[in-house]
Specification:
This protein is α/β, with parallel strands linked by helices. The chain has 3 domains: 253 residues, inorganic pyrophosphatase (n-terminal core); 105 residues, Diaminopimelate Epimerase, Chain A, domain 1; 111 residues, OB fold (Dihydrolipoamide Acetyltransferase, E2P) (Beta Barrel), CATH 2.40.50.460. Helix 4 runs antiparallel to helix 10, helix 4 crosses helix 14 and helix 10 crosses helix 13. Helices cover 41% and strands 20% of the residues.
């Protein structure tokens, strides 16, 4: 049934995805000729003992990208120097400012970008002028000219596809250099693919499925310590663990401090040094959470003025540029429309954008690029720089473009239910049958089932601050078993519904394990009053 509704045609490939080591370049859209050129240039760098710099990014994808390639180059015979931009000093990606910082440590013979570079035309031209060769690896959307042709920066070789995340693009180059190193870094490909919200189908599914196994058994000291101190069971890690436990902590370093420490954490082998880094990562994430909470409240008040618009664009000098992406994501959740949040500096504003399915946010932003300093990203997530004196104009232009180009139906919140089922299917057996559909993520979400005519037997707030709701539900007018339903961040339901009321619910079936005993429960996604109370 689920295979049919999700239009999965190759059942074997879906349930048993290839090991990434078996994937061909053509399967993921990488040009084999460009890959061969890159490898040949790296062979030259190794043989002539050249100075090589890996230019990464400060988010989880960029950090993992850098670690993957650094380890592969080391195995290949090149001890490369990693460079992670400082968000506050250098901004995003390869720029003249960040390139100046690279050159402070001496001129490299070869620079390799990972998870960035596809729109850095001027910096790549500057590299050419300086006599520095460059290999570009990236997955972001390239720019196109007026004829619709893709414009690539002037690099020696370009390893690019939009099908993957930045880390797995870099991983394919790593595989060409050292299959052993590539196999050892599969754990990082799972973190990066999930953290960058890639569609979990085809090759991405391969990386996450096999990468999770590698992550559960990872011998990286930093991963092991992070799991121990964050109370994460490494042996049962899954997509949710990465989304809410691992990726936010890696991202926090790039948002508020320096991503280089997160890179060290992934690659370090000394237990004592790793322990210090883990404490720093965990403490920084707590600070990030506190900052985000305060700023979300402020942004939601501003967003109220945009409730009738097709987009939300808010700005403030009080916003920290390290968390504007998180705030934008929260606004999308709250309003079901694209959201852009701008942190206003003295002269320059740094913006982060998040979108909804069907609205390509980077293409929308590029329509006002003549008023921007820089822009880049994906269809669902992007960012840009803008002079503070241009923010009002940019807001107005984006509002006008959104009004004409974003269809109203794309902004209507909806919940797609896979199937209506009876409560008798809420069982351990059903959960085990569904387990093969994991890992879940973009374009392969957890199955949501509809249950009709359920009676609320008990209803209460739970959690330290009472933000969540717990219901005991039983099929109305039957003797069937009562099932527990949990609703996260839905405290309002405790007053909207009453004990004894008949409701229809949409929920995910989940297993709860407590004291080595397993029980099935429902994670409630929506609850509505039943149309008929029989």
């Amino acid at each position: 049934m689920l295979l049919e509704t999700r239009q999965i045609k190759d059942e074997n490939l879906f349930f048993s995805p290839k090991n990434p080591l078996e994937l061909g370049l053509e399967e993921v859209g990488i040009n084999a000729q460009q890959m061969a050129i890159a490898v040949k240039r790296l062979e030259q760098a190794r043989d002539e003992n050249e100075k090589v710099v890996i230019f990464g990014d400060y988010d989880a994808d960029g950090i993992c990208s850098t670690a993957i390639l650094w380890e592969a180059l080391r195995s290949f015979g090149i001890l490369a120097q990693p460079f992670i931009p400082d968000r506050q000093k250098h901004g995003y990606g390869l720029s003249e400012k960040s390139l100046t910082a690279v050159l402070e440590d001496g001129k490299p013979d070869l620079l390799i970008t990972v998870d960035n570079g596809i729109v850095a035309h001027q910096p790549f031209a500057l590299l050419t002028d300086l006599g520095i060769d460059a290999i570009l690896t990236d997955h972001h959307q390239p720019e196109v000219n007026v004829d619709g042709q893709v414009i690539f920066p002037p690099a020696v070789a370009i390893i690019h596809t939009t099908q993957l995340c930045g880390a797995t693009v870099a991983w394919f180059l790593a595989r060409q250099l050292s299959e052993k190193a590539a196999k050892a870094s599969l754990d990082l490909t799972a973190i990066a693919t999930v953290a960058d919200q890639m569609p979990l189908l085809n090759a991405n599914r391969s990386f996450v499925k096999h990468g999770l196994v590698a992550l559960q058994n990872s011998q990286r000291v930093g991963i092991q310590l992070l799991c121990a101190k964050a109370k994460i069971d490494q042996k049962t890690m899954h997509v949710g663990t990465i989304n809410y436990g691992i990726a936010p902590r890696i991202n926090a370093m790039g948002r508020l401090k320096h991503g280089l420490d997160a890179l060290r954490l992934l690659c370090i082998k000394n237990m004592q040094a790793a322990d210090k880094l883990v404490n720093e990562v965990i403490d920084t994430n707590v600070t990030r959470q506190e900052l985000t909470s305060e700023m979300i409240d402020h942004a939601i008040k501003q967003a109220a003025d945009w409730k009738d618009k097709h987009i939300i664009v808010v700005s403030s000098p009080d916003y920290h540029e390290g968390v504007v992406g998180l705030i934008a994501g929260k606004l999308v959740e709250a309003y079901s429309k694209p959201a852009i949040v701008i942190a206003e500096g003295e002269l320059v504003g740094k913006a982060s954008a998040r979108s909804v399915p069907g609205v390509n946010i980077i293409e929308l932003i590029r329509q006002v690029k003549d008023d921007l300093l820089e822009a880049g990203g994906h269809p669902l997530a992007a960012g840009f720089g803008v002079s503070v004196d241009k923010i009002t104009v940019v807001k107005q232009r984006l509002e006008e473009i959104a009004a004409t180009q974003i269809k109203t139906e794309l902004l209507v919140p909806s919940l797609e239910v896979d199937s209506l089922v009876g409560s008798g299917l809420v069982s351990l057996e059903s959960f085990e049958c569904l387990a093969d559909f994991a890992p879940y993520g973009q374009l392969n979400r957890e199955p949501i089932f509809g249950f009709t005519q359920m009676q609320i037997m008990t209803l209460q707030k739970i959690g330290q601050e009472g933000k969540h709701v717990k219901m005991q539900l039983q099929p109305f007018n039957t003797s069937q078993s009562i099932v527990t339903g949990l609703a996260w961040n839905k405290a309002k339901w405790s007053t909207e519904f009453l004990v004894g009321q008949i409701v229809d619910v949409a929920a995910v079936i989940e297993v709860n394990e407590w004291h080595h005993r397993k029980s099935v429960q429902l994670i409630l996604k929506d609850v509505v009053a039943a149309k008929q109370n029989m």
